[in-house]
Amino acid sequence: MDGYSYSGRKPHFREELTLVERGTPMGEYLRRFWHPVGLIADATATPRRVRILSEDLVLFRDGAGRPGLVHARCMHRGADLFYGRGEEQGIRCCYHGWMFDVEGRCVDMPMEPDNGCKVRDRIRQPWYPVEERYGLIFAYMGPPDKKPLLPRYELLENLQDGEVIVADDSNLGSGGYGIAPCNWLQHFDNVVDPFHVPVLHQSFSGIQFVAEMGVKPDVQFEAFEQGVRSEQVRDLGDGSKLRRVTEALLPNVRVVPSPRLAMGPTEGIGFVVPIDSTHYLVYNVARAAPGTDLGAIRSKPGGKDWREMTEDERQRFPGDWEAQTSQGEIAFHSEEHLASSDAGIAMLRRLLARQVKLVAEGSDPVGWTQTPGEEWIRSRSGNFTISAEA
Q1: Which one is the CATH code of 34-132: 3.40.1010.10, 2.40.50.320, 2.102.10.10, 3.40.47.10?
Q2: Strand pairing class (279-288; 264-265)
Q3: What is the pLDDT of residue 177?
Q4: pLDDT tens per residue, range 276-325
Q5: Which residues partner with 304 through β-bridges?
């Protein structure tokens, strides 16, 4: 990745915070947690390609309804299991018919003498544990003895009358659609950057959300054990004020209240999932009425859906996608000049760096637990009105 340098030295990025391949500091840290790999409906008898943390995998569902996630290449001769099929006991390779259950055990070798009974128990297709929750399929890709409990998010558990959980995998919150071609940290940084809102989402893009979001906020940043919180207060000019609380929760969860100012606690969360070191995808989950399309709440720069915009229109009305992907595949941190408005970003990077170091030293990171009852995660995020009388 060639780039520029203000200093005359070779530009560089913080590898310990950005690279996610197995064996890298961030890659090992992230592998200590569960991450979404698809919607529940994505796991069927027809295999589906999955790429996450720079690994190529295949998602399927067996005849008993159990989801499975295995390495893409069959351990026999390396054929891609994407071309296989889900059957009653597992996924069958298209090349020689070897079949693996959802935990990678070989349960059938139809071309081998005695169905391979003498060797089947000695081999195992690489696989990862999966669990279904909140409309998503989560995978754990770390050391087996360090598998934590799958977190429960309080704001998704307390459903009101008529509410259901709705999930979305279209990268809602990124400013565009589909997999974004830049490092995951460029988006996660943005969660604790409220000062970009009046400029990018109002001055440049037109009113992407509501006029109130264009008011420059007074902001307090707070680093706490689970992440970084920004509390923004906007003077609405009529004596009342808008108090808006946004959180970035470790390792990669965004809790951002509605930019259209639905009042009250935040109704959903987003998982910023690194596909690899230069691509990411946000999976979103929210409490909503049945049939709600989360994608319908997307902003419209220049009044148009992002997918309908030309390159010229995206230049005139840029959004998060344009601002973040234009930083490069991985932003050069050596060339940044952080200012006081970037205090939240500095806090978040320090927290991540500490957690990465803890894992590298053999300790357990914040938010990781194998103790029932400790897997609950709470949030103070939301939009709240401060009345003129207050």
Answers
A1: 2.102.10.10
A2: unpaired
A3: 94
A4: 999 999 999 999 999 898 887 787 887 888 999 999 999 999 999 999 99
A5: none
